[in-house]
Amino acid sequence: MRKTWTILLTLALVWGTAAGCGQKSGKEPSAGLPEESQTLTSAASQDSQETKAADQTEDREWFGTEDGKTVTLRFWGGIQPEYGYDQLVADFNEEYKEKGVQVEYIRYVNDSAGNLQLETYLMGGGEVDMFMNYGKPRLDSRADSNLLLDMSDMLEERGFDLISELGAANAEGYVCDDGSVYGFPTKYENDRWLLINTDMFRAAGVEIPYDGWTYSQFLEAVEKLTHGEGQDKVYGVSYTLKQSNSGVRGIMSSVLGKYYIYGDDSASKVNFDHEVWREGLQMVKTSLDKGWAVPIEDEYSENMTVANTFLAGKCAISTNVSQMRLCMDQENYPHDFVTAVVPAPVPDGAEYQADTYRKHESVEGAGDVFCIAANTGYPKACFEFGMWYVQGGMSPLVRGGRIPLWTGIDRAQIIDVLRESAAGSIDLDSMSNYLSIDNTKGVASVTGSTANEILDVWKEEFEAMCYGRQSVDETVANMVLRGNQLAGR
Q1: Each residue of 15-25: b (16+ CB within 10 Å) or e?
Q2: Is 75 helix (H, G, I), strand (E, B) or coil?
Q3: Sheet order of strands, 130-133 included
Q4: Residue 304: its pLDDT value, please?
Q5: Phi then psi for 421, rounded to 5 degrees?
């Protein structure tokens, strides 16, 4: 695989700096990361690590050292521990306390600085055994830089087939052409679903669209949901454009399935002139022009987020379903309404009214990719933890809005966790509906070598439309022209 020399050179320079910061314990990423970086330490005592009998090393369920000592794995993730990782670590450490392995959770911030710090430690060795990767481009870059362990042999030995266990669309992109596997997704998150304030919907007389709705119904709803003036104005929808620009793009393209970027499998031309794109762009532009959506100027200048718009009662709908965990967190984000998760709208055409479209079952929904550091000293123990995690061990994360991807998960168990931790904050009927999505129906999108550049072009033209600098037709024409130039390179 090719080397990404620029990244490596940058990291090497940063490593030289970080090495001088005197970090010894490995229990928190201290070299310049924000103060909220946190560690959950292993429950294993020093005595238990030193007194394991040598004959335990022959036990097939022993994952410690050959001389009978328990090992402690450093597991890095980008989510605050109180959103379920504290309980997850406690569960694993209790279950594996006699099997020679314990885990400590180290929280890193999933931003540029945090990811650079993680990669620095991956290069240096000894500070990271395994971690959660967020975003396929970062995974590919880290694999190309030889920072990740290939788990394909261990998966084959375990008999864990990613395609059948996680769903084809969710997993096939993580199996390389040569069969190597440098990470596998663990979480299901369909970003074609929305967060809605059920109290506002009922007060405005708008039916809650549990089973889906159309573009025209969406526009009728956001008009009714918008009220007030000035600082007291409540908008029908916030597209959270600065926090998650991809969310609104996904909503408009969901029914196109694998062809949301390119028009066919050759990836030689873009599909932005499809009527579905045009209708979706018109829906967004209408809501902005009519004042039913938070203006893009405010979205960017004020950095509108789920916390300071949706949870603050300034809008009735948010497109950023990935922030569901905040809706469950009444301690840090107190609010007095119930949130439901509902499907995003689809085009009005009769051909898009099938349940598969209305519930957005035909899209990818995989995330939170589990990876093992290439230079860990305990690959077997790390892989054991990864298998435990994906096959049900991650269930406590449900209380933080992270839904297990594994097809064998007991969905009734997930609802039970939500009932205990989110009752009064989350509409459980809507969550049952969300969990009923058949995530094995998803299709992996066609991608080309310039896909990321094409999506950057899409974003530029979309924002020009939102700012009122061009019409929908001009936006589509520009997207097609510039996109095809890149696709044909």
Answers
A1: beebeeeebee
A2: strand
A3: 39-40, 101-107, 71-77, 130-133, 366-372, 184-188, 403-404
A4: 75
A5: -105, -20
- CB atoms under 10 Å from CB of 46, counted, come to 8
Alpha carbon distances (Å) from 344 to 34, 233, 360: 35, 23, 8
DSSP sequence for 191-241: TTEEEEEHHHHHHTTPPP-TT--BHHHHHHHHHHH-B--GGG-BEEEE--T
Q: What is the 3-state secondary structure (H, E, C) of 100-160?
A: CEEEEEEECCCCHHHHHHHHHHHHHCCCCCEEEECCHHHHHHHHHCCCECCCHHHHHHHCC
CB 439 within 8 A of CB 472: no
The span from the CA of 292 to the CA of 20, in Å, is 53
Q: How do 235-238 and 130-133 pair as beta strands?
A: unpaired
Q: Alpha carbon of 118 to those of 2, 32, 322, 378, 380: distances in Å?
A: 21, 12, 22, 18, 21
Adjacent-strand bridge partners of 214: 346
Beta-bridge mates of residue 237: 293, 317
Instruction: Please tell me the number of Cα atoms within 13 Å of 137 on its side-chain side.
Output: 9
* Amino acid at the residue 267: A
What residue has token string 């410690």?
Answer: 64
pLDDT digits (tens, 9 = 90+) for 128-165: 999 999 988 889 999 999 999 999 999 999 999 999 99
CA–CA gap between residue 114 and residue 119 (Å, rounded): 9
Least confidently predicted of 83-92, 99-108, 244-253, 421-430: 244-253
Q: Compute CA distances 135 → 74, 183, 369, 390, 450, whole Å.
A: 21, 11, 8, 18, 17
Q: Is residue 8 pLDDT above 90, yes or no?
A: no
Name the helix (H) or strand (E) containing 185: strand 184-188
pLDDT(105) > 90: yes
Decide: 191 and 372 in contact? Cβ < 8 Å: no
Tokens of 14: 């940063």
* Model pTM above 0.90: no
